[in-house]
């Protein structure tokens, strides 16, 4: 893997994506258990509240000037609303837009990917699945997160994505990947414990990483904000999202985390995503950014 010692500012600059895709929640429910947060919540989603919470998220993106696209959720795919997971959209330094299609780990979620492939193709994106000879799974932007403003990928692995997938993607597409082992089943996707806010700053829950992973993070971000354990585990504090490097959209009630964010100069926008927390997801999982 071209894990790099090249300093960040020597990597190609990539503009931040300005568009967001959201998937409508009419078919969202907790229908099976594929992560520890879902246990005990089967059948517990309140549809009306889920719709209201989703609309509030959509309204925030619109208010912030992000162009919103929506895809209709499909019946029988209750997790399709978590649209960070089915693809990894990219923009190359040469200006090509594309999307790597996921190979979902859970059999219950595999059929979601085609819906996103169609969406991105209609946007003029080149879409590619993983090479058939490559074993292992890949859950898109749940685990693979671009460094804001740079052609560098942070790659979480261990629960939903296999490390070898990053080696192949990196070889084929020419971007460096910093692999990060995940070590706690409640933080099963990288986006549950790692939230880059801008080129210099990341919000993390350090307890979800190994020491060498933390060193990688600390060596590439100037500022590392650490969310406390209770807010990270129960409120998904690190599943926040900053679409612009100024505002941070986050589950409401993350008092300590929000203090750190404000002190660091961000404007915090608190939203209630409690229906989605029942399924092990919050803000970051409910959207995918693209160019
Ligand atoms: N119930 C979904 C699953 O376990 C939640 C996915 C949340 N997405 C995320 N990017 N963390 O697959």
UniProtKB/TrEMBL annotation:
GO terms for biological process: L-arginine deiminase pathway. It comes from the Bacteria. Its EC number is 3.5.3.6. The keyword NAD does not apply. The keyword Transferase applies. Keywords: Transferase. It catalyses: L-arginine + H2O = L-citrulline + NH4(+). Pfam families: DDAH_eukar. This is arginine deiminase. It comes from Rubricoccus marinus.
């Amino acid at each position: 893997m071209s894990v790099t010692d090249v300093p960040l500012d020597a990597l190609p600059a990539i503009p931040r994506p300005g568009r967001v895709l959201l998937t409508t929640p009419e078919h969202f429910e907790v229908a099976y258990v594929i992560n520890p947060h879902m246990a005990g919540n089967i059948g517990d989603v309140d549809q009306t509240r889920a719709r209201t919470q989703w609309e509030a998220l959509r309204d925030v993106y619109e208010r912030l000037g992000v162009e919103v696209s929506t895809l209709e959720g499909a019946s029988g795919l209750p997790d399709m609303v978590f649209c960070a997971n089915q693809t990894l959209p990219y923009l190359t330094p040469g200006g090509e837009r594309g999307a790597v299609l996921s190979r979902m780990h859970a059999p219950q979620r595999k059929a979601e990917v085609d819906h996103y492939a169609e969406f991105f193709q209609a946007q003029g994106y080149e879409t590619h699945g993983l090479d058939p000879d490559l074993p292992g799974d890949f859950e898109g932007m749940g685990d693979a997160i671009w460094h804001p403003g740079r052609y560098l990928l942070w790659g979480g692995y261990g629960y939903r994505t296999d490390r070898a997938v990053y080696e192949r993607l990196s070889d084929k597409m020419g971007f460096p990947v910093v692999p990060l082992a995940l070590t706690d089943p409640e933080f099963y996707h990288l986006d549950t414990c790692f939230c880059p806010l801008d080129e210099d700053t990341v919000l993390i829950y350090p307890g979800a990483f190994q020491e060498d992973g933390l060193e990688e993070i600390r060596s590439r971000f100037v500022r590392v904000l650490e969310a406390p354990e209770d807010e990270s585990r129960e409120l998904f504090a690190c599943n926040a999202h900053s679409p612009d490097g100024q505002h941070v959209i986050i589950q409401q009630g993350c008092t300590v985390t929000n203090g750190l964010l404000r002190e660091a100069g961000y404007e915090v926008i608190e939203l209630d995503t409690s229906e989605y927390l029942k399924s092990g997801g919050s803000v970051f999982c409910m959207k995918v950014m693209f160019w």
